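Tutorial sheet, problem 5. The two components below are modelled jointly, 416 residues in total.
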Amino acid sequence: MTAVLIDAVSWAFIATGSALVVTGALGLVRMPDFYTRMHPAGVTDTLGADLVLVGMMCQAGLSLVTVKLFLIGAFLFFTSPTSTHAIANAAHVAGLKPGFAEVPKRRPRGTEPGEGER
Amino acid sequence: MLASVFSLVSAALFVNLDAVDVAFTEAAVGAGISTILMLGTVAITARREAPSTRPRALPLTVVFLTGLALVYGTLDMPRFGDPAAPAQVHVAPKYIEDTAREIGIPNIVTAVLASYRGFDTLGEVTVIFTAGIGVLLLLAATIRDPQGAGVRAMHHHLVLRVVTKVLIGPILLFALYVQFHGDYGPGGGFQAGIIFAAAFIIYALVFGLETARRAVPGRIVRLLLAAGVLLYGGVGVVSFVFGRNYLNYSVLGPDMITGQHIGILLIEFGVGMTVAAVMVSTFYAFAGQHAPIRDEEW
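Model answer (structure tokens):
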């Protein structure tokens, strides 16, 4: 009974993770703008991969493999959002504007918002 | 970018073919370090190739003929995956059966690479060493001297700085794990050296090349570059001293198996040192071509 339960739970995790990965790929292709594209890419990297890893941990039971999978999951949990942030930040610094909005001017350090060049 | 995607896909292909060690190395080198160095090259040079002025008919013909000659040379080889090929009938069973008895480590790939085919691995490490020296010779003339102290790069990028600080320790630990775990699972010197270098490269990327150069000075990196190959060759010479032939590890310990273990550990360590030093020094050479971007320009 518990084996069936564990199987079902791991199936659910892996299926959800894979669905998120597919959705992320779809979004990557269909989104209109760079910044909107970063969002599905980040989802694929972080949540999709982590859910698949949790599903695999359920399959592995209590063993060293589970600990290793958990470490991989923790590593991905920290580094995928960071890489998404790094890419978006680099684009912002390079001057890429979001598709439909004005980017607020960078104010010099030490001034209040609203001060600076008038 | 396409090159790194290609490397990642071929790493997945290698995993599919049950060659996990190779996949590990391909993923680390191709999808990781090569991309960084390629980006560094593009940053130094230009994004588009200058149009070539010389006619391209002669080189194309030479390449084509050489390719034909190579293909003709392979026509004599046994068919791919042929179970009656000499490699499957003589070589592979000998390694598979003798490893447990003579070397005593579970990972047959490491046993073959480090012990049975130790000469080839010595050649590989020397090739890596030579490549590193070649890059340094080509680029060292234009490396600017590190100027000033305490250039705080990436002050605005808090997330990157914090995450890098948190991650560098685990990355270095993982590199050591991979290095010494090569006997029991996928791993070994090459992969570990790459991962080791990756930690220093990410430190240099986030905290500035000058800070990284103060942490790991160029001359120490170059020292390690040579020390790795020296260690590997030295193990062979020690075997001479004990009266056996070059790179015969059996004499390094009280019995054959212990000697093999010691020998494999030492040479893998030499390989890891050289690989890490080559990657770090190549990165220093590439990244040192630019003047550092000042903090206010970010």
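Marking note: Residues 64-94 of chain A form the longest helix (31 residues). Full credit if you identified this.
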